């Protein structure tokens, strides 16, 4: 959560300097947390080394911060404007969307989006695993993290897809796209009990994610579509959560340079993801 403090710091700096400088308040800049000397032990146990008056303001400004993040994380560009020509795209993702990535492994997918989209202050990438686990298990993690953060994105660890809507800040930001690549509950058997664990993970993720997207937002799940994996019936899991399946489309990993499919439970080995699809869900009431 140190990166969240970095966001707050940037907002506070803008507020403090407002009378002396002409700031652009249409975009929040997310500086590197390390540069601000923010010490983080665990989520919820944040020890910011800030001036005393800033510490007081950080503690008392949650509502204002959330509002500003919602407003300023991305400056949406209107159709027909000159700025619209500057929108960058990779796959179904564009530089004028607020993106939340869930369950990242070595953060190579997030890094790929960050590089392709340019200056993605609209990317918030999360992992279930801790910073220490990622350092130990993924050789390219720090490099990928730097690609994201150096371009304005945010990386947060120990975010559980099953309960993320309850996160005090993350759960109160509305996103245009929420992405979960290859959800897996950590059970490697092929029994009905194993399948139930995986399906429960996807169900709980969808239950959270549907509360975190805009009215026209989408939830994307990438999932293998053969053998045991087909039996998960991803489209039905979405329907059971009151979501509509907008589209199923073949996923081509080669369209995402630098993306590696990593096992999420240790080791730096890539797994074979083919054949697989992207399942795109939206809110059901948008159909009426």
Describe the structure.
With 288 residues, this protein is of the alpha/beta class. It is built from 9 helices and 11 strands. The chain has helices spanning 2-16, 52-60, 62-72, 108-117, 131-137, 141-149, 192-209, 227-230, 234-240; strands at 38-42, 45-48, 89-90, 93-94, 99-102, 123-126, 154-156, 175-181, 213-224, 243-250, 276-283. The strands form 3 sheets. A 7-stranded mixed β-sheet has the order 7-6-5-8-9-11-10, with helices on both faces. It is globular and about 45 Å long. The N and C termini lie far apart (39 Å).
Key phrases:
288 residues; alpha/beta; seven-stranded mixed β-sheet; 11 strands; 31% helix; globular; disordered N terminus
Short description:
The chain has 288 residues and is α/β, with parallel strands linked by helices.
């Amino acid at each position: 959560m140190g990166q969240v403090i970095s966001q707050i710091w940037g907002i506070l700096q803008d507020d403090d300097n407002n009378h002396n400088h002409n700031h652009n308040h249409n975009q929040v800049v997310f500086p590197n947390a390390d540069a601000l000397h923010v010490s983080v032990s665990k989520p919820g146990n944040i020890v910011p080394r800030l001036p005393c008056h800033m510490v007081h303001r950080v503690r008392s400004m949650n509502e204002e911060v959330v509002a500003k993040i919602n407003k300023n994380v991305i400056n949406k560009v209107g159709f027909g404007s000159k700025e619209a020509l500057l929108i960058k795209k990779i796959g179904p993702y564009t530089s004028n969307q607020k993106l939340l990535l869930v369950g990242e492994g070595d953060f190579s997918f997030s890094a790929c989006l960050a590089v392709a989209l340019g200056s993605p202050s609209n990317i918030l990438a999360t992992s279930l695993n801790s910073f220490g686990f990622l350092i130990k298990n993924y050789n390219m993690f720090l490099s990928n993290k730097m690609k994201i953060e150096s371009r304005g994105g945010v990386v947060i660890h120990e975010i559980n897809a099953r309960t993320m809507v309850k996160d005090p800040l993350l759960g109160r930001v509305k996103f245009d796209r929420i992405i979960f690549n290859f959800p897996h509950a950590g059970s490697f058997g092929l029994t009905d009990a194993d399948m139930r664990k995986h399906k429960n993970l996807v169900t709980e993720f969808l239950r959270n994610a549907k509360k975190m997207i805009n009215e026209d937002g989408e939830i994307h799940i990438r999932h293998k579509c053969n053998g045991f994996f087909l039996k998960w019936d991803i489209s039905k899991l979405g329907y059971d959560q009151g979501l509509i399946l907008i589209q199923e489309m073949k996923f081509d990993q080669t369209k995402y340079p630098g993306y590696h499919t990593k096992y999420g439970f240790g080791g730096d080995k890539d797994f074979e993801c083919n054949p697989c699809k992207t399942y795109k869900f939206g809110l059901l009431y948008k159909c009426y």
